[in-house]
Amino acid sequence: MTETAQRPTLEAVAARAGVSRATVSRVVNGGDGVREPLVERVRRAVEELGYVPNQAARSLVTRRHGAVAVVIAEPETRVFADPFFALQLRGISKELTAQDNQLVLLLTEGRDDHTRVARYLAGGHVDGALVFSLHLDDPLPGLIRGAGLPTVFGGRPGWSDGDAGVAYVDSDNRGGAREAVRHLLGLGRTRIAHLTGPLDQTSAADRLDGYRDVMGEADPRLVVESDFTPGGGERAMRALLDRRPDVDAVFAANDLTASGALRVLREQGRRVPEDVAVVGFDDMLPVAEATDPPLTTVRQDIEEMGRIMARLLLRRLDPRTPEEPPAGVVLPTTLVHRASA
Fold first, then answer.
1. Res 64: pLDDT
2. How many CB atoms lie within 10 A of CB 66?
């Protein structure tokens, strides 16, 4: 191998910049105490030589690995079929990449995977974790706490009440649901149903609470539990029409559930929105704009949620952060009007 093909060394950077090896090491590893003119000379030499730090050696100095685990408490088939996860991962990835961190994706296919994930997180491979799509009885939060790893959760963790140290990013699920149901009432609809998400997840429970905030003591037959999937939406819509064939509006807990409900309504000859108005939740454009008719829905900025999750975690990992970052961040939602309601 010729000298020009060899990987540039720390010593080569020091020689090019005219500084000591120790100075280069401090600059490369983000240390303090180096005057700005010298920092600029080192950075210029790094760029000219194409120097890439040895991550293993860097970790020994900084105690950081430059990697963050993203844990999704769902099976692979669900993660890669639901655009929600792609949007949130895109936001996370953009923020981590901008800060020169690697994303390590971990999925839990079943309960046997929890121990594997917890063992990996405790093994010193990553600096922190971003965790979302948790269920209320999920053991992952306890296992992660046992690993002592800085963590930010996507969605309000249902087990965190009273624990001010739990960091999370969520949308105003309850407020968004109220707005959706009030919109349907404003259209003159009186028999408004709700197709829920899985009620062991706080987002689904909060949206049900928002529906009840507006509808009060509505006929319990108007509430049908579903699972945030198109197939679940179809099953729930069929069950609803069996229970209350006179339903004139549906608030679905997410866009995928709404898409399944719309298919069943079309199959059964119900006109949307003339006979039954439909509102979803998420505003995932590949779904909301592709339904027939296009879906009126509550918009939450899913990609921004991912970015803020990553930003909060990186601030918690940075010893130079002047103050403790906020524990809980709740983003606003807005109703997007299309043809279905």
1. 58
2. 16
Written as six digits, the tokens of 122 are 């405790």
Q: Which long-range contacts (CB under 8 A, 24 or more apart) does 39-46 make?
A: 41/17, 42/13, 42/17, 44/17, 45/13, 45/14, 45/16, 45/17, 46/13
**Antiparallel, parallel or unpaired: β 296-299 and 334-336:** antiparallel
Report DSSP letters for 209-246, one per residue. HHHHHHH-S--GGGEE---SSHHHHHHHHHHHHHH-TT
pLDDT surpassing 80 at residue 159: no
Could you give the CA distance from residue 135 to residue 152 in angstroms, rounded to a whole number? 15
As a whole number of angstroms, the distance between CA 185 and CA 191 comes to 9
Distance of CA 283 to the CA centre of its chain: 15
Q: In what order do the strands lie in the sheet with 102-107?
A: 102-107, 67-72, 128-132, 151-154, 167-171, 328-331
Q: How confident is the model at residue 62 (pLDDT cuts 50, 70, 90)?
A: very low
What whole-number percentage of the chain has pLDDT above 70? 88
Contact 91, 304 (CB under 8 A): yes
- In angstroms, the CA 161 to CA 164 distance is 8
Q: In whole angstroms, what is the distance from residue 317 CA to residue 187 CA?
A: 49
- pLDDT surpasses 50 at 4: no
Question: 177-227 pLDDT, tens per residue?
Answer: 999 999 999 999 999 999 999 999 999 999 999 999 999 988 999 999 999
Chain centre to alpha carbon of residue 194: 24
Report CA Rg, the chain.
25
Task: Tell me the torsion sign for CA atoms 198, 199, 200, 206.
Answer: positive
